[in-house]
Design brief:
Length: 428
């Protein structure tokens, strides 16, 4: 089944660290070798051996329209013929900025960058410059890209300073990062009590999606808004996944919370490398060349990425798109729950909008620690069984499955059948 993939991988590890250009693709967490892909078509992925899969990775979120959407590929094609990058402004950048602003009212000015990592890195720099403070609060299990100061593990105890999560990051670069458990009201209050005038910003995934999907507890985001306002700190929503996923106005629209700064990525690039950060004009005006906070990019706002992003958002603006996504994802969620009930399995299904995780645990999952109660061995085998039957899931327990507009009821039904067979195979 994987003859060609195996050959590709063998060659890849000779030239690329681990054979992949981003670690989770290596499929180590599911005890497999990576599958090499040839092409994508709507909800389907086709690998180099010709195997066909229903895809729930969707490039880790960007492909909300599915693979090779005709409007997106047409936009890329027609724009690329006129030049791929000018290192000078184009009017379509303005159009994308205006479109983002009109969807997300908390964004009054926005700067395009090339990845989610760049967006969070720049937002943190800006928050520190604006407040004149150093400390950042983040939450354990929330991922904000591989920015040095945000790549931290929590220490023991509650309000602890982050320990570098990777060699190559000096403690000096993480000592101003305070890592707290997600959804822990007391820990946040405590941290603000202890460091009240030192906290530049709180950065949070308003719905956690990088430790599996974990929604915020009722009142948690409100508390973050309240405490940051009260203490002169900024609230940064990392909506790199949730932006244009939970609706046109992202998680902030869905929960009715207005952050000071927002980070975007993934969907706004329509499958090309894009990120963005934006927020209150008064804060964004500090960014160079309007202000003193330096941030730049050779390929930022390049015509092709902007065209893909514009085409994607324009599709999303059509009536009924989010209703369709909601209905499809709900069908998947309910089907999964029925199967678990029928097979008398105690696992948990979390769904927020069109993101979903099946946690292999019978414990309530509210943060990183409780997510870790999942049986990752079992998930690994489940992933393998699913792949064997033609469904490609994210190769880790702690990731979101993404439903796209290209998925239909038929694909969801097929998926559920495969889930049933796979879970049965696991228990056999
Ligand atoms: C993917 C992701 C990032 C990083 O984006 P890249 O484009 O991979 O650098 C940041 N924050 C969140 C919430 C993400 O899901």
């Amino acid at each position: 089944m994987f003859t060609r993939s195996s050959a590709c991988y063998k060659r890849a590890i000779e030239s690329i660290p681990g054979g992949v250009n981003s670690p989770v693709r290596a499929c180590k967490a599911v005890k497999s070798d990576p599958i090499f892909f040839e092409r994508g078509e709507g909800p389907y992925l086709i690998d180099v051996d010709g195997n066909v899969y229903i895809d729930y990775v969707c490039s880790w979120g960007p492909l909300i329209l599915g693979h090779a959407h005709p409007e997106v590929t047409a936009a890329i094609y027609s724009v690329s013929k006129k030049g791929t990058s000018f290192g000078a402004p184009i009017w379509q950048e303005v159009e994308l900025a205006e479109l983002i602003k009109s969807c997300i009212p908390s964004i009054e000015k926005v700067r395009l960058v090339n990845s989610g990592t760049e967006a969070t890195m720049s937002a943190i720099r800006l928050a520190r410059a604006y407040t004149g403070r150093k400390k950042i609060i983040k939450f354990e299990g929330c991922y904000h890209g591989h920015v040095d100061s945000l790549l931290v593990k929590a220490g023991s105890g509650l309000a602890t300073f982050g320990i570098p999560a990777s060699p190559g990051i000096p403690e000096e670069l993480t000592k101003h990062t305070i890592s707290l458990p997600y959804n822990d009201f007391e820990a946040v209050k405590q941290a603000f009590k202890e460091y009240e005038k030192e906290i530049a910003a709180v950065i949070v995934e308003p719905v956690a999606a990088n430790m599996g999907v974990i929604p915020p507890k009722k009142g948690f985001l409100e508390l973050l808004r309240e405490l940051t306002s009260e203490h002169g700190s900024l609230l940064i929503f990392d909506e790199v996944i949730t932006g244009f996923r939970l609706g046109l106005s992202g998680a902030q629209g869905a929960f009715g919370i207005t952050p000071d700064l927002t980070c975007l990525g993934k969907i706004i690039g329509g499958g090309l490398p894009v990120g963005a950060y934006g927020g209150k004009a008064e804060i964004m005006e500090m960014v160079a060349p309007e202000g003193p906070v330096y941030q730049a990019g050779t390929l930022s706002g390049n015509p092709i990425a902007v065209a893909a992003g514009l085409a994607t958002i324009k599709e999303l603006l059509k009536p009924g798109t989010y209703e369709k996504l909601e209905a499809l994802a709900k069908l998947l969620e309910e089907g999964l729950k029925e199967i678990l009930e029928e097979l008398k399995l105690p696992y948990r299904v979390h769904r927020v909008a069109s993101m979903l995780t099946l946690f292999f645990t019978d414990k309530e999952v509210i943060d990183f620690e409780t997510a870790l109660s999942s049986d990752t061995e079992k998930f690994a085998r489940f992933w393998q069984e699913m792949v064997k039957r033609g469904v490609y899931l994210p190769p880790s327990q702690f990731e979101a499955w993404f439903v796209s507009l290209a998925h239909g009821e038929e694909e969801i039904e097929d998926t559920l059948e495969v889930v049933y067979e796979s879970l049965e195979a696991l228990e056999a």
